[in-house]
Amino acid sequence: MSDRDVEVGVFLVLMAGVVLLGFGAARWRRPADPYHIEEWSVGGRAFGNWTIWFLLGGSMYSAYTFIAVPALTYGIGAIGWFAVPFAIVTTPLTFIFTTRAWSVARRHGFLTHSEFAAARFGSPGLGALVAVTGILATIPYVAVQLISLQAVLRTVGFGGEWPLLAAVALVSICTFRSGLRAPALLSVVKDVLLAWMLITAALMVAMYGGWGSAFRGAATRFAATPNPADGLLLPETGHLGFLTLVIGSALAIFAYPHALVGMLAAKDRDTVRRNAAALPVYCMALALMAMLGIFALSRGVTPADGDLNTVVPRLIHEYFPSWSAGVAYAALSIAALIPAAVMSIAAANAFTRSLYRTYLRPDATPESEAWTSRWVSLIVKFGAAALILAVDPAFSVDLQLIGGVLILQTIPAVFLGLLTGWFHRVALTAGLISGLVTGLVMLWDIPKLDGTGRVVAEHFGGSSWSLGDGRSIYVGVVALAVNLIVTIVMTWLMRAAGVRDGHDGTRPDDYHADAGDPYLQRLDELIDGLPTAADREQQRVPSQERP
To answer: In principle, which of 243, 304, 441, 505 could form an S-S bond with 119, CB 3.0–4.6 Å?
Structure first.
């Protein structure tokens, strides 16, 4: 049996086991009512410390980490390191914001950011706009996972489009059947396999001269390229672009719908806090993967057909033992499928709760919501597959950054809304639309360049806007600044004009609720500007008796 046969054999055996485990996840901790939307989409809000740890790692540190970031450091060097500091910055943000989000969502039965925005500012219309923005931003992020999966399949030897579509179909069926339980269970397998891959990678680097040799070799290769922007150090004109990428990505990552899904599955507030505090452990894996792009460049690894997303799979093929390469391929494939599943669940929840139930079927039962979410999750995954067949980004990370431009515009309503209800609902809506329009216009006007700086396409060539003097700035930060200015100015104007604001359906103590809270409930249908039935019921309880 050849080395290639061993690689492919180990890969196929492990992936077959993953598929069977995904199907069987529906029976793991099977609830009395498996068709309830909370059971399907957030595991009944009952996962403990270890399950949440693996689930968050599986959904947040995805193929973006293990395929897209090394491809970026391989292609242009230092700028690819923006992913490491932004991952570190997210830790305090997670600790502060997600605990508050978990509490208010647990008390009101929210499953999405959009539900919270609608309740906080008394505007189902704002909630619907946040939901649509979240769905549109998530599809490119799912596409990043599928592009990475396609790169692995191509390296293994399964070229063409049918292997990717077959893999998407299998993960879609597993998600449809098992909901969040499938990615939660598979995340454990993924982390075990990835730990083995990272240990093997570290030993491989040590065997071939260590990191010093790798960085010297990469520096020599960058010096020989015609692109002035690449290299191991940022050019003097690259600092602004790097800094804004870090800030924008750090703000965006936990505004995505799927970030909330993993947290809402936690059984109590302490579980959220512990896992938020431990997330920096994954940053070490991210840093190692970023450096593997440098190592691959120094060793002269050639991507398949010029596709930089194949750099890590090709490195594995050339330098890992054949059986260990099969394990690594399986780890990378699972790292793509798990977040794709969680992201599709989150996007489906946003549609079901803020569009379907609010406007299409107000009397929807939890069971009908669950079935609607299941079908929409399929549409999201296959929509992302269609997207990657239609576009050809220079780096797959560009798709995620373009999605980040969109999701950043929900920050005032979602993240800042967790801290204050001062903003006016009309101002938030106007600000969000202004930010989206600004971001899309700027993205449209960015040309796509090749490695020599030659324009190869006129539009949607990336997410960094050139300032004309060699410097660039991340479009998402500019669009968010426009959004915030419009929101703040219009809030002052609305207040001065006496325009009626929406009713805040939350209360200060909602943001500190924990498991066992006697006032946990599902959110009734919101009526714009009026108290809900749940609000009226809570108003009957004296404030001193509330936790």
So the answer is: 505
Nearest to 184 by CA among 55, 26, 59: 55
Q: Are 463 and 475 in contact (CB under 8 A)?
A: yes
Pairing of β 455-457 and β 448-449: antiparallel
Q: What angle do CA 380, 377, 263 make, to 5 degrees?
A: 110
Rounded Cα gap, residues 504 and 486, in angstroms: 21
The whole-angstrom separation of Cα 179 and Cα 244 is: 36
Q: Which residue has the tokens 């001065």?
A: 496
Helix (H) or strand (E) holding 472: strand 472-474
The per-residue DSSP string of 83-105 comes to: HHHHHHHHHHHHHHHHHHHHHHH
The amino acid present at 203, given as its one-letter code, is: L
Backbone angles phi, psi at 527, to 5 degrees: -110, 125
Phi and psi for 33 in degrees, rounded to 5? -125, 85
Find out whether 82 and 242 touch, Cβ atoms under 8 Å. Answer: yes
Over residues 19-40, the pLDDT tens digits come to 888 888 767 766 666 667 888 8
Nearest Cα residue to 180 out of 103, 97, 270, 111: 111
Q: Which residue has the tokens 């396409």?
A: 457
3-class DSSP assignment, residue 171: helix
Backbone phi, then psi, for 466, in 5-degree steps? -75, 135
Token pair of 262, please?
Answer: 């993993």
Integer angstrom CA distances of residue 263 from 56, 63, 173:
8, 20, 24
Whether pLDDT at 486 is above 80: yes
Other CB atoms within 10 Å distance of the CB of residue 419: 11
Render pLDDT for 215-247 as a digit per residue (tens, 0 to 9): 999 999 999 888 877 899 998 888 999 999 999
End-to-end CA distance of the chain: 66
User: What phi and psi, each to the nearest 5 degrees, are found at residue 179?
Assistant: 65, -145
324-338 residue pLDDT tens: 999 999 999 998 888
What's the pLDDT tens digit per position in 45-88? 778 888 888 888 877 777 778 888 999 999 989 988 888 888 88
CA distance readout (Å), 302 to 75, 76, 155, 256, 317: 11, 15, 12, 34, 11
Q: How far apart are CA 305 and CA 180, in angstroms?
A: 36
The DSSP output letter for 67 is I
> Which one-letter amino acid corresponds to residue 430?
A
